[in-house]
Amino acid sequence: MTLAEALPPRASLWQRMIARNGRAKVCWTFGLLAAIVLLGLLAPVLPLQDPIRPNPLAKLAAPSWPHLFGTDHNGMDVFSRTLHAIRTDFALALSSVILGVLVGVPLGAISGYIGGRTDAVLTRMSEVIQGFPQILFGMAFFAATGNSLWNVVLVVAFYNIPVYAKMVRSVVVPLRDIDYVQAARVAGNRPMRVVFRHIVPNALTPVFAQLPLSCAYAVQMIAGLSFLGLGVPIPMPEWGSMIQVGASYMVFGKWWPSVFPGLALFLSVWLLNVTSGILQSLWERRA
């Protein structure tokens, strides 16, 4: 008998995660992710140098005790900018994912419950959105509306909406004919009340498992847009723009302005993917 099979019926979520993924993996994944988020939240109160204050006397200074990650071409401290960029990237990513959930979940629930032509139209629209290149859409959107943090959130959320719409639809379709849903319908409940009170709560488990993966995708997309000069305006600390600005100096041996933000981006996306896998294992094995 495996550890997961030996769990009591009312085992906590933490106990189930450890049983199905191992204590070490769960602890270091959530521990590292919590440490990164905490560093981002506390960056303004930590004893760090001003992330947007240039220092002409310390341009492209190599990593040292005064500048742990060195400085960029403006003399800005890369360590301070890397930590402050956590707030920028994670806040934008989380905002876009939440917006995608708030729009996508109701659309998917309505599409799956009503079916017919409504379902066909919403499904085709989701497929069209997912089939259009994200970067090209972002470039066109920013060219038409200009760069702003709100526009970054809208662009990334636009591609999260069909993800959650199709996910919730796939769960709602088999639930709409189940006994307690039929009983709620016979009892005289309006269709929207049946959907959002009796069906949607049972469709949220895969949504929660998808959230870290969506945040990882959002962080990558935000960094990609900023790398192209779109989205987050310079000199606001953001990993993608820091990598892009520092890349031109790597041929001269000045690797630190790009490498350290790149490592922070890689570590964050990797941890979010692992976290999503841990949560996904709970849903898949229970199903």
Q: How would you describe this structure to a colleague?
A:
- The chain has 287 residues and is an all-alpha fold.
- Helices cover 70% and strands 0% of the residues.
- The protein has 11 helices and no strands.
- α3 packs antiparallel against α4, α3 crosses α8 and α4 packs across α6.
- The radius of gyration is 23 Å and the shape is elongated.
- It starts with 12 loop residues before the first helix and ends with a helix.
Q: Would you spell out the secondary-structure blueprint of this structure?
A:
Blueprint: H1 13-21, H2 23-42, H3 78-114, H4 116-131, H5 134-145, H6 149-175, H7 179-186, H8 191-199, H9 205-227, H10 239-247, H11 256-286
In a few lines, what is going on in this structure?
With 287 residues, the chain is mainly alpha-helical. Helices cover 70% and strands 0% of the residues. It starts with 12 loop residues before the first helix and ends with a helix.
